[in-house]
Design goal:
Blueprint (H helix, E strand, L loop, with lengths): L4 H5 L2 H16 L1 H14 L5 H17 L4 H7 L1 H18 L1 H24 L2 H12 L7 H31 L8 H29 L25
Helix pairs in contact: 3-7, 4-7, 6-7, 8-9, 9-10
């Protein structure tokens, strides 16, 4: 006797499994990181149909996580403007279609990353990365996870600073300058200087608090909704 797919979904066991998977996808950072890695891998050489499907998937995830779409676009507006020269150069060398796909992939990856940072705490990202790197031999998982988590946390700060610099330059009439190279240099230099200054301040703060790699850190529980800290620490 044949059993259709709809009748299979009505089984109580499968219902509970699907419900649990949905609950974990809201909470566990390991699943979030794995989903972003899969989306990034699939978008490397994807055509517009696959990119459109991945974009809808990321937007749906943002809605389910209650992430404001317009606030993220507002934070990424300077990042999107920086892609315009890339789009122009790529259009001259490979065509407008290929240039649009390249910028689309970059924006999709950036939006997914900002959504991850908006819904996940820093220690959760660090613990999830350490969980992924721990089985790999000859890799210092604590150092690498700390570096990546700090880098991810710097991205919103860089976006905020870029918005502040852009608003300050507009108030000083930077748009009256017709030379795009001059405007780009005047934007990149202060942004780079502020980024390095913030990195130096972070290093000083970590050294003042005696930060080291052998510190006891909280562990993620085994795919729990409540994010319990492991009592073994």
């Amino acid at each position: 006797m044949r059993i259709c797919s709809n009748s299979l979904l009505e089984l109580p066991v499968l219902k509970s499994v699907i419900r649990k998977i949905g609950e974990y996808s809201y909470m566990d950072p390991r699943l979030k990181l794995a989903a972003i890695a899969i989306i990034g891998f699939l978008s490397l050489n994807a055509e517009w149909k696959i990119l459109a499907l991945l974009t809808l998937l990321v937007l749906w995830g943002g809605i389910r996580f209650q992430v404001s779409f317009f606030s993220i676009l507002k934070d990424m507006r300077c990042f999107i403007l920086l892609l315009l020269p890339i789009w122009g150069i790529r259009s001259l060398t490979a065509g407008m279609y290929d240039a649009t796909l390249v910028c689309w992939r970059i924006i999709l990856a950036g939006y997914a990353g900002v959504s991850l940072m908006a819904t996940t705490r820093t220690w959760e990202i660090r613990a999830a990365l350490r969980w992924f790197f721990k089985p790999i031999p000859f890799i210092p998982e604590k150092r690498l996870s700390a570096m990546i988590s700090l880098m991810l946390r710097f991205l919103p700060l860089i976006l905020r600073q870029s918005n502040e610099i852009s608003d300050a330059q507009k108030a000083r009439g930077i748009e009256c300058r017709k030379n795009p190279i001059y405007r780009m240099v005047r934007f990149v230099l202060p942004l780079t200087r502020r980024t390095f200054e913030d990195a130096d301040n972070l290093i000083i703060a970590m050294e003042a608090r005696c930060y080291c790699e052998d510190r006891t850190e909280p562990e993620l529980s085994h795919f729990s909704r409540s994010f319990r800290l492991d009592n073994r620490t």
